[in-house]
């Protein structure tokens, strides 16, 4: 059962070209989670990329923060119909993390502390399309929003931006994660309203 906070109110704005079909603008930042909020300390946190050969690329929190950082301004869209426009994030581009990763696979499964998973094609993580974000609106990312770090894939519905992300596993073919196994669309393009199966 999901946990929902305030922020699910707003007016539907069909005249705003930044809003995908069926979305409304909110100034809040609603919280929707599939379970309790994990509390992961910086000392415990690590991010990994595991290839098909079993090679594990791993970054501790300090190693992660030592990587080149990007400031990102983007709109985000939740499958529950809210959109938050012009959000500000800071994090590490997935292109940076994949430097030196040798893989022939085209799909990934994102894994999170707490057991959450979601599938994302590799092409949707590279070429400046995705980040592992640790800062929101100038402050450390709060645990309820996925802190200490979450995946940020803003061109897809926000359930693909896995909170509390711990790593990516390379896959030979697409496979459903948590919400995809429970009826959500395998891809999740908000402009095509790919909400559910």
From TrEMBL:
<feature type="domain" description="Oxidoreductase molybdopterin-binding">
    <location>
        <begin position="35"/>
        <end position="179"/>
    </location>
</feature>
<dbReference type="InterPro" id="IPR036374">
    <property type="entry name" value="OxRdtase_Mopterin-bd_sf"/>
</dbReference>
<dbReference type="InterPro" id="IPR000572">
    <property type="entry name" value="OxRdtase_Mopterin-bd_dom"/>
</dbReference>
<feature type="region of interest" description="Disordered">
    <location>
        <begin position="1"/>
        <end position="33"/>
    </location>
</feature>
<dbReference type="Pfam" id="PF00174">
    <property type="entry name" value="Oxidored_molyb"/>
</dbReference>
<protein>
    <submittedName>
        <fullName>Molybdopterin-binding protein</fullName>
    </submittedName>
</protein>
